[in-house]
Specification:
Number of helices: 8
CATH class of the largest domain: Mainly Alpha
Number of domains: 2
Mean pLDDT: 91
CATH superfamily of the largest domain: Winged helix-like DNA-binding domain superfamily/Winged helix DNA-binding domain
Shape: elongated
Strand content: 5-15%
CATH topology of the largest domain: Arc Repressor Mutant, subunit A
Low-confidence stretches: none
Length: about 170
């Protein structure tokens, strides 16, 4: 997801590393803080793969700043990753939100709809955090108020997302 975030933010505009790190942290930092020791090796790998380029600009102080930009190959790679997300990218909420943050970069409404339909299918499957054998338990079936809270919050969130997905699919013509 780090690479997807790098590609997504640089798709909009060239950024220097510090600004890129701030934006990624704002998007995913509450889940996975982005350390320099993680970000800069990823940038270097992507640079070596030809997905981005680094240019040097004079800094406000004495040190020059390195500005990162996507190459055309980087732009194609972002669109490919958005159009063909892995199963975990659709089922894991944090990965899904990262994908969703950049889905607008897919120019084709049908390609966007395909991704949204995958998420919709996942959310429409009966699921719970707690089971009685193979049967998912509902909040009302639990004596534990904290587990009831988990299920109540998850159900409300899922309902809201299902409504949004269906409305968005209709607006995309799906």
């Amino acid at each position: 997801m780090l690479e997807l975030s790098i590609l997504g933010f640089l798709y909009d505009a060239p950024l220097h590393g510090y600004e890129l790190r701030k934006r990624i942290t704002a998007l995913t930092g509450h889940v996975r803080p982005v350390a320099e020791s993680t970000l800069y090796p990823a940038i270097k790998r992507m640079e070596n793969a030809g997905l981005l380029v680094r240019t040097t600009e004079p800094g406000a102080a004495a040190a020059p700043r390195h500005v990162l930009s996507l190459t055309e190959e980087g732009r194609r790679e972002l669109r490919r990753r958005l159009a063909e997300p892995g199963d975990r990218d659709v089922t894991d909420e944090n990965r899904w939100f990262t994908l969703l943050a950049f889905l607008r970069h897919l120019d084709d409404a049908e390609a966007q709809a395909v991704v949204l339909r995958r998420r919709l299918a996942f959310l429409e499957e009966p699921a719970s955090f707690f089971y009685d054998g193979d049967r998912p338990l509902r909040a009302e079936e639990l004596d534990d108020p904290f587990r009831q809270g988990m299920l109540t919050i998850a159900r409300a969130t899922s309902r809201a997302e299902l409504t949004w997905l269906r409305d968005t699919l209709r607006s995309l013509g799906g």
